[in-house]
Write a structure and sequence with these properties.
Order of helices and strands: HHH
Structural class: mainly alpha
Strand content: under 5%
Number of strands: 0
Mean pLDDT: 95
Length: about 100
């Protein structure tokens, strides 16, 4: 299972790089925080779950934890893709309106 953990960690590292690039692209600080914060938190969750998986008492628990890690990774990817769509449609100067 260590291979699965390493594979997921590599994906997290790649996502973090993409989020950093998006952070550099967006110009409005409030929009950056609103759009990217959730993805950053999901990646933090993945890494926390991977730590738990490394310490799992048996293969069944480890598999369950890795399933959870993949779920949070998927959520982070979907959030990042949504941000990329916003930038493609509205450009790097997009501003979130509402309140």
């Amino acid at each position: 299972m260590e291979d699965r953990i390493r594979e997921i960690q590599l994906k997290v590292d790649a996502e973090r790089k993409q989020l950093s690039a998006l952070e550099s692209t967006l110009t409005d600080p409030a929009t950056k925080e609103y759009l990217l914060k959730r993805a950053w938190h999901h990646l933090d969750d993945v890494e926390m779950i991977l730590d738990w998986a490394r310490k799992a008492s048996n293969a069944s628990n480890e598999a369950m934890l890795l399933t959870g890690a993949n779920l949070f990774l998927t959520l982070a990817v979907k959030q990042r893709e949504g941000v990329q769509e916003i930038i493609a449609k509205y450009g790097p100067n997009a501003v979130m309106a509402g309140g």
